[in-house]
Amino acid sequence: MADYFSYQDSRLCVEQVPLADIAQQFGTPCYVYSHTALVDGYRQFESAFAERKHLICYAVKANPNLAILHQFAWLGAGFDVVSGGELQRVLAAGAGAGKVVFSGVGKTEAEMRLALDTKILCFNVESGVELLRLNKVAGSMGKIAPVSLRVNPDVDAMTHPYIATGLRQNKFGVAYTEALDLYRKAAELPHLRVAGIGCHIGSQLTETGPFVAAAEKIRALVEKLSAEGVILEHIDLGGGLGIRYHDETPPSTTDYIGALLTAMQSRSEKIIVEPGRALVGNAGVLLTRVEYLKHGEEKNFAIVDAAMNDLMRPSLYDAWHHIQPVLRRAMPMQQYEVVGPVCETGDFLGHARELAIVQGDLLAVMSAGAYGMSMSSNYNSRPRAAEVMVSGNVVQLIRERETVHQLFAGEKTFLL
Ligand SMILES: *Cc1c(COP(=O)(O)O)cnc(C)c1O
């Protein structure tokens, strides 16, 4: 976050462009991304792997804007998708399907057909029943589906319970104890080809310990499989590397990848990772304008034009985002609840923030590049925000602000 968004004199800028200029040109609320931050983030992953055979599959759900997908594809990334829609986005961004892995517990037959037609790299299969369905669908198309089992290593990711995915009680993956049997079964199904193994234990992890514990459990399985003659092409260690929102101290990309590679030192399979948040989270901010300063009996409210429908993380996970004024003012700070206009008490962006602002000022909600726009909704019939990308002093709109008309374009009057 540090260098891509910084104050020049008293004005907060993205790279070389004052955020106030972007608000002026494109309006608010508006997501603003630093192109340089995206590229630097990706290159840190690349260089951390050094000579090791690898593929970085960006987790599309973190931020699926076509401009972002296109950029990562150009840098050589693959993609982790969790729906047919995300696969179509990857293709629409001009990327090939050959570096796509398809995760998710509920793949439909239609999604399987689309993925087989486009020849994705691998299906990350999450259950025995999914293996059977995939075998049937592939057979009906006269194709062979490449598969990897997503194994649930039963490791505590020590993160928010809504984003911990690698515990026995979670819906994700196949049980560690059943994995070997399922591999034997997969090897016998005629329309499947066993290609890999994987795991993904959760999101916003701030320690390497759980990643290493999961990797070691996966390695033990790989060793058993190879003793039985099941040879894998790749080991997919998922995503989940955390970022700094507040005072977290997540490992650097280099330390994180280094720890994974150490755990996999004895193996020669290609290593896949699926980072989402770590690549985009700190590359974006949500720019919003203060509509009113309302002084209540107990609290002061800064009512802004962005809301929980634009950035759901505070309401959903009680997540903390820095909120910075776009213009630094020489006046005393006051404590504000930063809230949106949506009719829910849970509609807030930050509690008890010290800000020196006047009505009409702009605020930047920091670290909003991941799971911001991608989780946004139209609640309260609010059109979704515009998105803008900046590189140096170049500013481009990468998604138009939605119009109210688009919101009800598919709706029909009920006629009796
Ligand atoms: C969400 C997800 C990711 C990305 O998680 P981040 O925490 O954003 O890195 C990777 N793989 C799978 C299977 C996921 O569901």
Key descriptive features of the protein:
alpha/beta, 416 residues, 8-stranded parallel barrel, Lyase, Ornithine Decarboxylase, Chain A, domain 1, TIM Barrel, 21 strands, 2 domains, binds pyridoxal-5'-phosphate
Explain what the structure shows:
It contains twelve helices and 21 strands. With 416 residues, the chain is of the alpha/beta class. The chain folds into two domains: 5-33 and 281-408, Lyase, Ornithine Decarboxylase, Chain A, domain 1 (Beta Barrel); 35-279, TIM Barrel (Alpha-Beta Barrel). Helix 2 (35-49) packs parallel to helix 3. Pyridoxal-5'-phosphate is lined by residues 59, 61-62, 80, 82, 103, 200, 203, 238-241, 274-278, 370.
